[in-house]
Design a protein that fits this description.
Strand order of the largest sheet: 2-1-3-4-5-6
Number of helices: 11
CATH superfamily of the largest domain: Response regulator
Distance between the termini: 61 Å
Radius of gyration: 19 Å
Structural class: alpha/beta
Strand content: 5-15%
Order of helices and strands: EHEHEHEHEHEHHHHHH
CATH topology of the largest domain: Rossmann fold
Number of strands: 6
CATH architecture of the largest domain: 3-Layer(aba) Sandwich
Number of domains: 2
Helix content: 40-55%
Amino acid sequence: MSRKKNKIRVFVADDHAILRSGLRMLINAQGDMEVVGEAEDGEETVRRVRGLRPDVSIIDITMPKAGGLKVIGELTRKSPETRVLVLTMHSEPAYLRTALSAGALGYVLKKSVDADLLSAIRAVHVGKTYVDSELAEYLVRDALERSTHVLPQTRDIPLSSRELQVLQMVAEGFSSRQIAGQIFVSTKTVETYRARIAEKLGLKSRAELVQYALESGLLSTDKLSLPKHTSSHRRRRASGKVK
């Protein structure tokens, strides 16, 4: 019997081809693991993982078409035998907390790649949770803070429905350009929404927006679903009409 069958089968999802190539070389150089597939966006990731059924799927949070947080939820429901490991540049605790809540077992920062990533793959494969050492302390601190903190309710947020949509997508890791493409408005319009949101909420940084979105329930896992592209959306984009 070939020992290759005993290798950890890994899927890599990231929108940067150079990073995927580097990860493929790193992983395939290990005697106990191999890359069995890749994807550059969220929708492709869900489709290919469901077909390939890898042991571990490495997911970036910020990806085109469907963000990583949405993908985690989809994979947890549709491919439960695949363990999810997040590899991201986002070091905000809110992302970590939401990713774990969505079903991820591991969370590694891209600057900690190489040894940490390989250890994370092996740990996640056997069902253990692996969190980047830089973020581990946040889990303890967050648990203590949340035990006495009253979270705001979504109904109390002073934002319009469109502003809430933009805030959720910002918190999920999408850039203004990616948001513009998904809600069929210009990038400048998205920037206007973001400025208006920040002014209304008194927030300045993306980290503050993410924290607010999480505490308001906007990043709860029941709100994370793949986007639906309807024919009316396509017609609106083709005609150049936006709202």
